[in-house]
Amino acid sequence: MAKKKLTWKDSDAPDAKGRFKELSAPKLASWLIRTRNSKLNRIIGSLNQQIAFNKDRPSYVAKMKTTRNIVTKRLKKKDAKKKWS
User: Fold this and answer.
1) What is the pLDDT of residue 13?
2) What angle do CA 57, 39, 14 make, to 5 degrees?
3) Is-contact 47 60, C-beta < 8 A?
4) How far apart are CA 26 and CA 66, in angstroms?
5) Given this model, what pLDDT does residue 73 score?
6) Cα separations (Å) of 28 from 40, 50, 59, 67?
7) Model-level pTM?
8) Coil, strand or helix at 71
9) pLDDT score recorded for residue 82
10) Alpha-carbon span 65 to 73, nearest angstrom
11) What is the pLDDT of residue 64?
12) pLDDT value at position 57?
């Protein structure tokens, strides 16, 4: 089976301008939630792309995974509150 080559996909979301690299995981999570209109699939897609294209930087990949976990928890809590309100 031939492996499919990864391709970078630009989003219509605001340009990060180095925020993925500079911000801490919780601050990056907040920024992503705000700029991606709380759309979990867009945020996870952005973070997964960062993980896929930066496998040679283990600390950066760990930060992206941590950010992904934070975003998921925050948005799941937000959805739960909406359902019970």
Assistant:
1) 73
2) 65
3) no
4) 9
5) 95
6) 14, 13, 15, 7
7) 0.82
8) helix
9) 67
10) 12
11) 97
12) 96
Spell out a b/e string for 11-44, using b for 16 or more CB atoms within 10 Å of the CB, else e.
Answer: eeeeebeeebeebebeebbbbbbebbeeebebbb
Written as one string, the DSSP assignment of 2-65 is PPPPP-----SSPP-TTHHHHS-HHHHHHHHHHHTTT-HHHHHHHHHHHHHHTTT-HHHHHHHH
Q: Please give the average pLDDT of every successive group of 10 residues along the chain, which has 85 residues.
A: 74 81 96 93 93 96 97 86 61
What are the structure tokens assigned to 68, written together?
């992904």
Supply the DSSP symbol for 85. -
Q: How many CA atoms lie within 13 A of 70 on its CB side?
A: 17
